[in-house]
Design a protein that fits this description.
By secondary structure, this protein is an alpha+beta fold. Helix content is 26%, strand content 26%. The chain contains six helices and ten strands; from the N terminus they run E-H-H-E-H-E-H-E-E-H-E-E-E-E-E-H. It has helices at 60-65, 70-73, 85-91, 99-110, 144-160, 244-266; strands at 23-25, 77-79, 93-94, 120-128, 134-140, 163-168, 173-180, 189-198, 215-225, 228-237. Strands 1, 2, 3, 4, 5, 6, 7, 8, 9 and 10 form a ten-stranded antiparallel sheet that branches.
Length: 267
């Protein structure tokens, strides 16, 4: 797949405009969410743990330190070289389905499962060298109550937006399916979804036949860890790399907790 010029850290496509530094502060924005699910995924875990007694938001340096690295994901992953072409080609879409489904598509394209950040945050992205997969992560310090409201909304989507159609910019009309994503029991509250986009044989106008069917799978996860949170998306045409989302969730929680523990030790 062709790739734009290299960048080390990516901002979500609609996070404060385009690519931004690894750590930044954004203004207000509409809260949005993203999600995805495999047909046989088990119900997502939903425990809500206690909020950290430390109300202080992450500093810029802490948010940066909490980001995932190549070592967290495995040998096939490397720093992203640009936004995946399928993001604009398929995820950028519109629908006449229920308002929640429209909100979902907007949040998915914006890469904002927890809404637009209003304070310090950090973002990064990785490409899978064995395929066209891309994983993007955002670490932020929103109000815990806001995170929990976003998680509650995400949990409704496998029912309200289980299946609908959307018109994409380059892949024609796609059938979108949303379901719960089984997740590791990490963090204090979490929700995971898998979204699949599947085009009919003539969806892109390129002809007919089963070989023309296109499928994009995107895992979307949001996790609260005490008073902090992170969100990630892991997408690829066809099948996602095995275990990548789970590994990112576990390591993301470990990193956030380590950063907070280090901060308290130095205080």
């Amino acid at each position: 797949m062709p790739r734009p010029p290299a960048v080390r850290v990516l901002a979500a496509a609609v996070l404060c405009a385009s690519a931004v530094p690894a750590v930044s502060a954004c203004g207000s924005g509409q809260a949005g969410q993203a999600a995805g699910a495999s047909p046989s995924a088990a119900a997502a875990t939903r425990p809500a743990g206690p909020v950290s007694p430390d109300p202080a938001a992450l500093t810029a340096a802490q948010a940066q330190a909490a980001l995932l690295t190549e070592d967290d994901l495995g040998a096939t992953w490397r720093p992203s070289e640009g936004v995946a072409t399928w993001r604009d080609g398929i995820i950028k879409a519109r629908t006449t389905a229920a308002p929640d489904c429209r909100r979902l598509l907007d949040a998915l394209y914006a890469d904002q499962p927890l809404g637009a950040p209003k304070g310090t945050y950090a973002v990064t992205g990785f490409d899978d060298g064995d395929g066209a997969a891309q994983l993007r992560q955002q670490v932020l310090s929103p109000r815990p109550a806001d995170v929990d409201r976003s998680l509650a909304w995400l949990r409704t989507l496998p029912k309200t937006c289980a299946r609908f159609t959307a018109t994409t910019t380059r892949a024609g009309v796609q059938t979108v399916r949303v379901s719960d994503l089984a997740m590791p029991a990490a963090g204090d509250a979490r929700q995971g979804l898998r979204i699949t986009f599947t085009g009919p044989p003539d969806g892109s106008g390129s002809g007919s036949g089963g070989a023309d069917v296109t499928t994009l799978s995107v895992d979307v996860v949001a996790v609260r860890v005490g008073g902090d949170a992170f969100a990630l998306t892991d997408g690829a045409p066809g099948t996602l790399p095995s275990g990548a989302t789970d590994a990112a969730v576990r390591r993301g929680v470990e990193r956030l907790r380590a950063v907070r523990s280090s901060g308290r030790a130095q205080a």
